[in-house]
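As a next step, we paired sequence with structure tokens, yielding the entry below.
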Amino acid sequence: MPDITLTASDGAELGAYLAVPPIGDGPWPGVVVIHDAMGLGVDTRVNADHLAAAGYLALVPDIYSRGGTVRCVKATFSALFAGEGQAFDDIESARTWLLEQPANNGRTGVIGFCMGGGFALLAAARGFDASSVNYGQLPKNLDEVLGGACPIVASFGKRDRILKGAAAELEAGLAKAGVDADVKEYPDAGHSFLNRFNVGPFSPLVKVAGLNYHHPSAEDAWQRIFRFFEKHLRA
């Protein structure tokens, strides 16, 4: 699958990764994949490939494309906390690019992990047809964010030391807003249980911090995501 270049709404060029279903010519639903704080790495590409294998045109915009890494990371987190900014414009550029492709069926979803999960939640009311929020941070103005949101499938780990209580809070907020949703908290999973980070000799430290991959929970979460996307993106 190729790395490509997207032209953002302000004319800037963004790096991106495109994963295309290996069989058939479409049309397929499009999915914008939003990477975690570690950037567009191998793990994010693997997740995009997983979506493509299931019949989705998956596009990962590199939202750290604009200049030096430190500046990009700072600007991206500032946008996440503010609920607005360049990162959201770049996500919208990715959504628009997918809709312009002849192989797209006219529907788009968004999926994110960790930092990307926070963006996927905030983007749910910004033109997407379905959103997959995976251990994403909840905003303080959750009720406002969920107003007009598309259907949301969300997954959290009960052993997550960062987002304690987030699953229950999000589930209550979605019910209050009347959003079609599927929220699940996995009892044996921690934060980042869907990610396989390649951190070499630091793997034991990552595991102690509760950031490790948990296969049974990950497999179940992917099945739920695919069922949910099948329902809302193939209509």
The two ends are 26 Å apart (CA to CA). The chain has eight helices and eight strands. Confidence is low (pLDDT under 50) at residues 199-206. The first helix runs from residue 42 to 53.
